[in-house]
Amino acid sequence: MEYVAAVDQGTTGTRCLLFDRAGRVAGEAYETHEQHYPKPGWVEHDPAELWTNTKAVVAEALAAADAAATDLAALGLTNQRETTVLWDAETGEPVGNALVWQDRRTTERVEELEREGKAEWIRERTGLEPDAYFSATKAEWLLDADPVRTDRGATRDRRERAADGDLLLGTVDSWLVWKLTGEHATDATNASRTMLFDIRALEWNDDLLAEFGVPEAALPEVHASSDPEAYGTTDRDGFLGAEVPVAGVLGDQQAALFGQTCFEAGEAKNTYGTGSFLLANTGTEPVASDHGLVTTVAFQRAGEPPKYALEGSIFVTGAAVEWLEDVSLVDSPAETETLARSVDSTDGVYVVPAFTGLGAPHWDGRARGTILGITRGTRREHIVRATLESVAYQTRDVLEAMEADSGEEIESLRVDGGAVRNDFLCELQAGILGREVVRPALDETTALGAAYAAGLAVGYWEGLAALREQWRVDRSFAPAMDGDRADARYDRWGEAVERARDWARDEA
User: Fold this and answer.
1) Binding site for ADP, residues?
2) Average pLDDT rounded to a whole number, residues 309-336
3) Annotated binding site for sn-glycerol 3-phosphate
4) Can you tell me which residues bind glycerol (predicted)?
5) Which of 44, 97, 109, 402 is the most exposed place for a label (fewest CB within 10 A)?
6) Binding-site residues for ATP, please?
C-alpha cells in the first residue's frame, strides 16, 4: 500500500491528506462548511454537510495524488471534539444540527450544577471543568428539547428512542465512523471530552449518564485511538469502492500532540486554529489541575495503557483574526503580519476576544469580547496588533497554569496550525512566554497525528522511534523581548481580562 489517508474534520472545514512512508503529503483537498448561528451564543453545523464534504475531500485527495482507494493502507480520522450529533440509527439521517463546541446555550445548566455543588464531583471523574463547552449538556439538550417542536411528548419520545438504540448519539468522530463503516465507535480521547466518561476506569460513568439523562445504549463503544480492528473497514460498495481499515481515531488536539511526536511526559504543543489548545503529555498517570486546566486522555494504542495530558483550551484565537476580516479591518489573515509590524506597539490597546466566553484558566461562559484603551489616535494597525497579542497572552495564561500544576518548567513549545505561518505571531509568542517556540516543517500536524495512529495500527510505520526521526523543524524562535517589558504587558492583559468577565448576564 502506498499511502495512509487522514481526514481532519474541523470547526470551519474538512481536510483530507494522503501521507507516504516518509510523512510527506502526496495529495490533499479541503472543503468549508456553513456555520449556523440561530441565536446569540448558539453555534451549529449540519452533520449531513460534514459527511458530504468528507466524501468529497477523500475523493479529491486521491485524485490529486493520482491514487485509488486500493492504494490506501489505512484511514485515520481526527475531529472537532466536543461537537455533538444525534442521528437516526435506521435512516442514517441526523436529528437536527450538531451542537458545536463553541455553543453556549447550556450555560445556565452548568451554573445549576455549580450551585448544586457538583463541580468537584464531575472533575474527579472526568478531569474536566464543568462547562457548556463539553458534550454532556449538549447531549442533554438534544434529548430534551426539539428545536422544531417543543411539546413534552416529542421530547420524551426522543429520549425513549435513544434508550432503545433507535437514536444514536456521539461526537463528530463517531458520526463519521458510523457513516464510513457502520460501527458505532469512538476513541478514548474523544470520550474524555464528553463529561460523561471516567478517564481512570476508561468507561462511561453510570452516575454521570443518570445526571444528564443520557442512555448508554445510544452512546458509542470506546476503543483505543490506534487499533487495527475496532472501527471496521469502509464498504466495498460505498463511495470508495474498496475495503479500507479505519484504524486511527483521535480528537483534533490530541492528534496534533501525536503528530508533533510528543510521546513522552513533559513534551508540549500548542495548536493555533479557530481556538488554541495547549497540551502537555503527563505520562500514564492523570494529573489533576488546581489552576483551571483540564485533565484528558492524550492517546492510547491498542493493548497499552493510555497516556494522559493536561490541557488548556482557549476558545478564540484564529477566530479573532477571522473577525478582523469580518469587520473589514483586514482584507485577509495574511495582512495581519504586515499591519502589526507597521506600528511599534498597540498604543495601549488591548483586545480580549471572549466572543464565546473564556476557557482555561478562567472558565467564564459569560465573558464577552472587549477592546480597551482606544483613543482618538487609535488606528486599525493598533487593533490588529492587539488582536495578535491577545493570542500570545492567552497562551501564557495557560502555560503558567500548566507549569504550576505539573511542577515542571516547559522549556520550549512546539506550535502548529494555520496561524503559525505568521512569523510575527511566533516571534511575539516567544517574547511573551520568555522561551523558545518551535515550528515544524509540516504544520498540518493534526492530520499527521491521525495518519500516524492509523498507520501504526496496521504496521505501515514500525514504531514511535521511526516517527520521531521524521519530525523536522522549520524554524525556532528565541525570545527577543525584554523580560520586564513582557511581564508588565502581561500584567496589564490580566486587568483587561477582568473587565471582560461576567458581561453576558442576560444570555443563556
Assistant:
1) 11, 15, 274, 318, 418, 422
2) 92
3) 11, 81-82, 133, 252
4) 81-82, 133, 252-253
5) 109
6) 11-12, 274, 318, 418
